[in-house]
Design brief:
single chain, Glutaredoxin, globular
């Protein structure tokens, strides 16, 4: 749970860290464990489909990674910074740098393979 110590300024919902522009870099850049970020929007049906999958993975790998969500409508600056033009987009950060990106409503196994490579 070492990575969890950086979450004091982030809100938590359902075991997931809720990111926004003001805390994104603080959490992602300072984490000693990989950070998996779900870029999503409330109106996005594929995002809703992926949410339970993302939540299951967050529980499975809770001791080895931080799983976080960023609403692109409320935080367009961060979405733009990482060239997120389609949602859902999942970006895995290691050492504060993006190392892998998964775009779209993919199967649970595909997303898990991407995550598992970096933890």
């Amino acid at each position: 749970m070492e990575g969890r110590r950086y979450l004091s300024s982030a809100s938590r919902e359902e075991g997931l860290t809720q990111l926004e522009t003001k805390n994104f870099h603080q959490i992602v850049d300072s984490s000693r464990v990989p950070v998996v970020v779900d870029f999503w929007a409330a109106w996005c049906m594929p995002c809703r489909i992926m949410h339970p999958i993302f939540e299951r993975l967050s529980k499975k790998y809770a001791d080895r990674a931080i799983f976080a969500r960023l609403n692109v409508d409320e935080n367009p600056e961060i979405a733009s910074e990482y060239s997120v033009y389609s949602i859902p987009t999942f970006i895995i950060f290691v050492g504060g740098k993006p190392v892998e990106q998964v775009v779209g409503a993919v199967g649970e196994k595909a997303l898990e393979r991407a995550v598992a490579k970096h933890i």
